[in-house]
């Protein structure tokens, strides 16, 4: 996998933009086995270790008057509790599903941010595996909440909504099945995946072009490198914002799906 700051040129000396092969780096350990580890897996391991350390150290010896580090951890936890769990599900149900929503939010956030960390430069969510697993977790939580709250009626009311003239069920039921039980996990997966892919490709494009203009172009063309470097810096900040936004949206939609399953109409 090419580092974004590496020279981006082909054999003829021209500029070569990023490609989808960026997301299939060579294996580093256990190559050729089901346990092969590449740079994306290392990014995931790194994000997981940092995330665990932050919460272990931030909550191990909590004080009534928190220090700066504890305050930051509490701020993050409080954001998920107030802006996602309680805001969508209410205090009672929000407390029940808070561990799930907190895990989803911070996992997506930290995996996303590896894409802007020097030396890693690729998001842990930029391959379909992690987004798909998280979408399945959200899907299972949705089914669990609905079946537990409305045993025997959840699937019936989801597929056969009351108040619809019975001949229309021939059309409505397949639509409800596809939209509720098929498209939700797919769209949840693709929304996160596509944002991370596009963000990575843009960063590689700008920083690769910067390297090309500075080190391989001649005369005044090198000045274009200043512009691509500036755009690269701006898009790095934007990618950090997108990483946070996608974590918020993913956890928010998970809470929304759970709330729909708990709705009394089911």
Description:
- This protein has one domain (20-262).
- The protein is globular, with a radius of gyration of 23 Å.
- The protein has 7 helices and no strands.
- With 266 residues, the chain is mostly helical.
- It has helices at residues 39-59, 68-113, 129-149, 154-159, 169-181, 183-215, 224-262.
- Helix content is 67%, strand content 0%.
What's the arrangement of secondary structure elements?
Elements: H1 39-59, H2 68-113, H3 129-149, H4 154-159, H5 169-181, H6 183-215, H7 224-262
Whole-angstrom Rg: 23 Å
Uncertain ranges: 1-7
The average pLDDT is: 89
Sketch the topology as an H/E string, one letter per element: HHHHHHH
Q: Between the first and last Cα atoms, what is the distance in angstroms?
A: 49 Å
Q: Any idea how many domains?
A: 1
Helix count, per DSSP?
A: 7
Rough outline:
globular
Proportion of strand residues: under 5%
As a percent range, the share of helical residues equals 55-70%
Topology, number of strands: 0
Largest sheet: none
Structural class assignment: mainly alpha
Summarize the structure.
The protein has about 270 residues and is mostly helical. About 65% of the residues lie in helices and about 0% in strands. Helix 1 runs antiparallel to helix 2 and helix 3 packs parallel to helix 7.
Key attributes of the depicted protein:
7 helices; disordered N terminus; globular
């Amino acid at each position: 996998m090419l580092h974004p700051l590496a020279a981006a040129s082909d054999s003829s000396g021209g500029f070569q933009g990023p490609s989808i092969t960026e997301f299939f780096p060579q294996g580093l350990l256990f190559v050729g086995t089901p346990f092969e580890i590449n740079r994306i897996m290392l990014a995931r391991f790194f994000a997981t270790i940092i995330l665990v350390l932050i919460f272990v150290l931030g909550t191990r010896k909590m004080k009534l008057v928190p220090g700066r580090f504890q305050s930051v951890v509490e701020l993050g936890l409080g954001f998920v509790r107030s802006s996602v769990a309680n805001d969508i599900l209410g205090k009672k149900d929000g407390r029940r599903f808070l561990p799930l929503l907190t895990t989803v939010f911070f996992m997506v956030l930290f995996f996303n941010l590896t894409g802007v960390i020097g030396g890693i430069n690729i998001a842990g969510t930029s391959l379909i595996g992690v987004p798909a697993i998280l979408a399945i977790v959200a899907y299972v939580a949705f089914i669990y909440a609905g079946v537990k709250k409305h045993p025997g009626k959840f699937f019936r009311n989801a597929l056969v909504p009351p108040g619809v003239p019975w001949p229309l069920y021939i059309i409505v039921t397949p639509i409800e099945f596809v939209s509720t039980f098929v498209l939700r996990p797919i769209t949840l997966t693709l929304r996160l995946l596509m944002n991370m892919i596009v963000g990575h490709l843009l960063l590689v494009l700008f920083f690769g072009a910067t390297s090309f203009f500075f080190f391989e172009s001649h005369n005044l063309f090198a000045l274009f490198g200043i512009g691509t470097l500036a755009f690269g810096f701006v898009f790095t900040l934007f990618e950090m914002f997108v990483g946070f936004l996608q974590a918020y949206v993913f956890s928010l939609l998970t809470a929304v799906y759970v709330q729909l399953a708990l709705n009394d109409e089911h």
